Amino acid sequence: MRSKYFCSLALVLGLFFVSSDGFASNEVQALRRFKEAIYEDPLLVMSNWNDPNSDPCDWTGIYCSPSKDHVIKINISASSIKGFLAPELGQITYLQELILHGNILIGTIPKEIGNLKNLKILDLGNNHLMGPIPAEIGSLSGIMIINLQSNGLTGKLPAELGNLKYLRELHIDRNRLQGSLLVAGASGYQSKVYSSNSSANIAGLCKSLKVADFSYNFFVGNIPKCLENLPRTSFQGNCMQNKDLKHRSSSQCANAQLVKTHGSPSAAPKHQSAQMVAKHHRASKPKWLLALEIVTGSMVGLLLLVALFSAVHRWNNRSTLIIPWKKSSSEKEKFTVYVDSEMLKDVSRLTRQELEVACEDFSNIIGLSADSQIYKGTLKGGSEIAVISLCVKEEDWTGYLELYFQREVADLARLNHENTAKLLGYCKEISPFTRMLVFEYASNGTLYEHLHYGEAALVSWARRMKIVIGIARGLKYLHMELDPPFTISELSSNAIYLTEDFTPKLVDFECWKTILARSEKNLRNISSHGSICVLPNGMESRYLDVSGNIYAFGILLLEIVSGRPPYCKDKGFLIEWVRQKQLSFSKHLKLSYFLLLFFHHLYQKLCYC
């Protein structure tokens, strides 16, 4: 066994150091490490990186120097790749441009990025990166453009940013950054960077910076005077007090200071009252703007009156509490489907505008599929949420889809357990057509990510056991304690989200597939003369899937114990690998039999006792 391990290790190391003639082997190794850290490549943009004998200069997204001995540019943008930023990227020291915009990169920005002394452009915008901006980024002495917008970055701006005297563009909007922007001296300029433990000093940037965007963070204090006249500079959506800008609510700012920082609550900056802010805004507005607001307000008031009278008229002429769902512009549906308007009366309904603000214009995408997108956001009270939005056009939305959507919302609203994600509400609007579900957000990623990628691959056995027990208890609750029982549409390690203390949460993010599948099944049974829809027996439809959840739980146990994913292109299915081990090695038979007995006993003990 040991010799086999060392042979495999030697083979892997050999692949890392294969390179074309004259090409730096450490750069090839760094690229392969980066490829390893990318665990989802749906568009196969990195598929030609797998050939160990190919020239790295021919790989997609790789650009080399004229002599083809160094990598000078990496551009893999808008490719939906999902994974981590490998620290080994810092070994590509001749790199001038690193552009990974518009993907699903997670984890933190490695401090090794600071080793790229020749870097001119760093574009990691529109990803899912978290944690602080590393101070080592201030070592990029020749950097001209930094784009870190639309991530989940936290903490304060590093004072080392003031060292970047050639920086022209800085985009850090739509993150969760905090602190104040202070500039020493009345003139607003300072040659020597002044650093502080509590705030970033950006005086060194003022002479070179041409474009900057600090919007939609949690910055406090005053806007530096040297930045006020920069073109396209935006500070809106922060917690600042001295500008006539669109600010975050006081509750959001207070919660960010109390929850997101590790300091004492008393260290949070004091905010002006809403009345004082409003008074300041009114005093600072020009007369023409006040006149425009008065005219606009009058028009809006008239429209509201018209809408009110129309609503009263429609209400007085209503015929029943059970309303028919009618498609606006399609004649495909020749039958009537009745939807009970009382079905969701106990479930919180949120507006699209509320969710748009919470999710910062729906810019923070944390997951997507053919039929839905998942966004991360923060409600006014500070609660982090995951919003699932159905990708469907209004003309394709049928009465049966509406019926099953409401049924699914009511079904999800029943769940109330430590190991299941809680449904916080839903959104249903006609213009623009919207169907969304709002769940509580578990901030520690999925079980799949922790088992197979990054530093989290070293999950301790104690944590694995805690996760297994939590999943089993969640399934027991769903299968045995609910009437009718509830099942997860696609139970896998990607459907298990973890909290900070590694408590597992079962999340049914694939419920849209259940809705679509059930609707299509019923549509096939409708006669050409049409019929009235009757809700199916929820217990019957769900109970058939309980056995599937139990089987998926067994696969999960094998995945957690073995550390292997359920399926790999080069290794096949995990269950087949287990069967081959049983057939190939007689000494494994007893072990496998013991494991199966253990799994069966564990599930029975935790779920059906």
In short, what is this structure?
With 609 residues, the protein is α/β, with parallel strands linked by helices.
Task: Describe what this molecule looks like in 3D.
Keywords: Leucine-rich repeat, Membrane, Repeat, Signal, Transmembrane, Transmembrane helix. The protein has 609 residues and is of the alpha/beta class. It folds into 3 domains: 2-272, Alpha-Beta Horseshoe (Leucine-rich repeat, LRR (right-handed beta-alpha superhelix)); 287-318; 324-607, Orthogonal Bundle (Transferase(Phosphotransferase), domain 1), CATH 1.10.510. 33% of the residues lie in helices and 17% in strands. It has a 7-stranded mixed beta sheet, with no helix packed on it. A hairpin with a 3-residue loop joins β25 and β26 (572-573). The longest helix has 30 residues, at 287-316. It is globular. Residues 1-21, 183-200, 259-285, 318-339 and 519-544 have low confidence and may be disordered.
